């Protein structure tokens, strides 16, 4: 069975999407979390309770929304405090105490403190590590592999093309040759290809319904059909962007919705909620739900929380709620679909 690796930023909408996954989808999914400072904060003290350190908050949320299933954690963007160990060490300690199954993610060129923390985690937990590389690093494996500090057999390799997936796909046979030879110098514990075709914030699309080809899914299909000496797992960005969501978006922004299909994204690009041509958010979201429900190639997934909720919104039996709720629905549908279509 092909393993699915959704790349997430651990925002509340994504967390709730994971919480509502069916057991079947959950069983084949290993989420990769990109933990930033905005999602790693102390829970402030109250009159009744003391403050809760950020590592404990994160692990509590992880267990609540994902359970004790395996997950990858990339905490390399978190800052360190002076000579203190990198925060991923404290996260791993909290995860260990709570029974959460964490595998640390590392990049080539990670700073010494992060590498030291990941090495210590690997030594204690014996779950190995995950290496996430980009397209340039993929084509230079022979150069950096001799210096890789961990055993290949305990390393999950994720080739993440990010927003460059179309450029990678255009390489054709050159890319095929690299993937065919990835195990030449040793057998990686697993190999995953990832990327996304979603433009940040639906840039370049006018109001209305659109299709965006899922080049990352097409690329995986082509590569996995090669005579590879290993199973090629699939990963992608389950949310709409690879980057950090902008913090300076003015109120009144267009109301947009993404709905994932096997080979395309179905996009409903909305309009602003303010100004002379503004349309209320509730009206737009109800219209987006009706557009999804009426789309004949949609193929709703039986038992999927997201598809059921969208159908209820479309016929007026449920509130549209806010945009965060639609992040929940979008991510949940995306992951459930990948479980449904991957072999």
Approximately what portion of the residues adopt beta-strand conformation?
15-25%
Rg over CA atoms, rounded to whole Å, is 21 Å
Helix and strand pattern: EHHEHEHEHEHHEHHEEHEEEHHH
What is the residue-mean pLDDT, rounded to a whole number? 93
- Straight-line distance between termini: 6 Å
Question: What helical percentage do the residues reach?
Answer: 25-40%
SSE class: alpha/beta
- Estimate the global geometry from the Cα principal axes: globular
Strand order of the largest sheet: 1-2-3-4-5-6-7-9
Number of helices: 13
Low-confidence runs of at least 5 consecutive residues: 244-251
Strand element count: 11
The biggest sheet, with number of strands, parallel, antiparallel or mixed sense and barrel status, is: 8 strands, parallel, barrel
Report what the structure shows:
36% of the residues lie in helices and 17% in strands. The strands form 2 sheets. An 8-stranded parallel beta barrel has the order 1-2-3-4-5-6-7-9, surrounded by 4 helices. By secondary structure, it is of the alpha/beta class. The chain has a domain at 4-30 and 128-249. It has helices at 12-19, 23-27, 54-65, 87-98, 112-125, 135-138, 141-144, 165-169, 173-180, 215-224, 281-294, 305-314, 323-341; strands spanning 4-8, 32-34, 70-74, 101-106, 129-133, 155-160, 190-195, 208-213, 232-237, 257-260, 264-269.
